[in-house]
Amino acid sequence: MIPPDFIFMLTRHDRTVENAADLVETVRTAGVRHIGFKDIGLPFAGLQVLARAIRQAGARMSLEVVSRDRESELRSVRAGIALGVDYLLGGTHVDDVLRLLNGTAIRYYPFPGRINGHPSVLEGTEAEIVRSAAALAARPGVHGLDLLAYRFAGDVPALMRRVCRAVADKPVIVAGSLDRAERIRAAALAGAAGFTVGTAAFDGAFPASADLAGQIGCIQTILSTTILSKA
Asked: For the chain, what are the domain ranges?
């Protein structure tokens, strides 16, 4: 079993935290190799400082798009291009985004299903979301999917398994509300290629010391024990 990529999001309640750049060293020292953020919560100059800090720390960098409408989503995408992110996660205006990303090296992981509200909610039936995922994964220029699995009101483990099977040749990142051990385990066991954690760690949700290093260490332990149990 290949361990999924742990993407630590420097975000709380879908907003990048104000001191995000100051936390990069702590996150990297804790062993995280992939760091993400959103373009909401900091001015662009602050995002530039953050992106430089992540790049200098030698981590991969993701921007997750949670904009509510087409124009704000495209502004977010342009910000990601200007910041030189490695991955663009989320968003729903796929045709427009693909045109903007053409010629860049950015790997694009849009949201499958119907996304509504802020914080985002995944709507639709399980079958509809799986069909959406398969259709998106078949698009040239779409490198994977950003699945808001725990923002779905149905059988989440079943949804994750079905989406991962439906897009077997494209990686699926599970994002949103992974705030307890069983959810991280379920994502890993479903075949997710990655998962994000942000708010839960900042809120001290995991059974470890409430500081960021302690929370990240606990998440890594949860992941490693899950992998060992399947070895």
From this structure: 5-229
- Distance between alpha carbon 137 and the CA centroid of its chain, in Å? 16
CA atoms within 13 A on the CB side of 188: 25
How do 172-174 and 145-147 pair as beta strands? parallel
Separation CA 35–CA 8 (nearest Å) = 5
Q: Which helix (H) or strand (E) holds 122?
A: strand 121-123
Digitized pLDDT (tens) for each residue of the chain, 231 residues in all:
788 999 999 999 989 999 999 999 999 999 999 999 999 999 999 999 999 999 999 999 999 998 879 999 999 999 999 999 999 999 999 999 999 999 999 999 999 999 988 778 999 999 999 999 999 999 999 999 999 999 999 999 999 999 999 997 999 999 999 999 999 999 999 999 999 999 999 999 999 999 999 999 999 999 999 988 876
* Residues 6 or more apart in contact with residue 155 via CB below 8 angstroms: 126
**pTM over cut 0.90:** yes
Specify the CATH architecture of the domain 5-229: Alpha-Beta Barrel (3.20)
Crossing angle (nearest 10°) for helices 70-83 and 94-101: 20
Q: Does residue 130 contact residue 122 with C-beta atoms inside 8 Å?
A: no
